[in-house]
Every structure is written in C-alpha cells, then in structure tokens.
Amino acid sequence: MNYDLIELAKRCPDLAITVRLADLVEANRGLIEETKRELAQSLEASKPETYLTREKVMEMLEVSPTTLWRWEKCGYLIPISIGSKRRYRQGRAELHPGT
C-alpha cells in the first residue's frame, strides 16, 4: 500500500508507524519541493518592480527609436503610463497574445 506520509502526519500527528526508507526519502523530497515553491512565491511577491525609461530599453535591447516604436505598435513591448511618462516593466514579458 502507498500512503502519502505528509497527509497521514497531518491527519494523525500522534500516530507511531514503521516507515520504509524509500517512503521517508520520498516524503522529504516532497517537503523540500513544497518549501522551495513557497519560498519562490514569497520572494517573487516581495520583489519591487523596476520601470525603465525608453532610452534605457533602447540601450539594453540595442535598438533604434523606430524599432522600439514598431515593437510597441505590434504588441511585442507594452509600455505603461506613469503620469505623462511611458515606462517599461523590467523582467516581465508582456507580449501580444499572437506572439
């Protein structure tokens, strides 16, 4: 029989059992993966967003103003407006659904 040891521990925390080493290793791997996912989500949520100027984006991508304008019109890059200024989110791919 296969039992989910983590689920069993949650349901019956005072239960004493004999566990196969392979099951214990599998349970530990599951805990490690779950912890890694939770930590990654936590870090991603706490990371502040960075907004880049048009000039910085052109420099980073090594493109001309015309190319940047064309990419905006095609939906490859989607700028956001902050007041009267246009900025680009760094590290987030915001692509047109057709790409």
The helix content is 40-55%
Strand segment count: 3
Separate helix tally? 4
Alpha-carbon Rg, integer: 24 Å
- Overall pLDDT, averaged? 83
Low-confidence stretches: 93-99
Secondary-structure content class: mainly alpha
Distance between the terminal alpha carbons, to the nearest Å?
47 Å
SSE string, helices as H and strands as E = HHEHHEE
Largest sheet descriptor: 3 strands, antiparallel
Biggest sheet, spatial arrangement of strands: 1-3-2
What fraction strand? 5-15%
Which geometry do the CA atoms define?
rod-shaped
- Count of spatially separate domains: 2
Give the key terms.
99 residues, mainly alpha, 3 strands, 2 domains, three-stranded antiparallel β-sheet, 10% strand
Chain-wise SSE layout:
Elements: H1 5-11, H2 21-46, E1 51-52, H3 54-61, H4 65-74, E2 80-82, E3 85-89
Antiparallel strand pairs: 1-3, 2-3
Brief rundown of the structure:
By secondary structure, the protein is mainly alpha-helical.
Structure description:
The chain is mainly α. It folds into two domains: 42 residues; 39 residues, no CATH class. Helix content is 52%, strand content 10%. Strands 1-3-2 form a three-stranded antiparallel sheet. β2 and β3 form a beta hairpin. The longest helix is centred in the middle third of the chain and has 26 residues. The chain is rod-shaped. It starts with a helix and ends in a 10-residue tail after the last strand. The C terminus is likely disordered.
